[in-house]
Design brief:
Largest sheet: none
Number of domains: 1
CATH class: Mainly Alpha
Distance between the termini: 65 Å
Number of helices: 7
Shape: globular
Strand content: under 5%
Oligomer: single chain
Length: about 200
Amino acid sequence: MKKRRKIRKLPILILVIMIVYIGYLVTAKSIKQTEQTRLVNYLPDIMDELERNDLEPDEFAPVLLAIMDQESHGKGNDPMQSSESAGLSRNEITDPTESIKQGVFHFSEMYRYGEANGVDLDTIIQSYNMGPGYIDYVVSNETNHSEDIAKSYSEYMVEKSPDLYTCNNDKLNFRYPYCYGDYTYAGKVTAKIEDMNKIVEHHS
């Protein structure tokens, strides 16, 4: 009798697992659609600022959308997380329009500096997170961007300011001990660009 009960319970267990999984997929899809809606709402501002900074909107809007998605998923008053690039404290910018203006300006500065130094686009994207010093570091090492070179630069910056870049002494932080910037940043952003390109094509 016990064996028969186990056999009867198995289909119910499978059904429960399927319902939970379907619920997860529906929720994940809903979250993604909400995030994309937020990004689309900022697309006109991004394209205007790209034009203002003499960068081709259709070419670079997907990159800037991917950066925004990585930084904030379009949430908050500083969706480009560009306060620090303006020399301000984190989240000190409280107007999304100003955040986009500064974020696109910062990217355009990194792009021009990177182009002048002959680095690849991944290096430029990584420098949005790590600053122009990362471009100098890549050039001085006669290489292109990789997670290993980003780790090396982060380690270099941590050694210069060990009390500043600590990951809050959280050894479970995936960046630890490479606590300056996010050495995985460019990879995360570039992985989003194809989807962002579809958004730009659909709404431009």
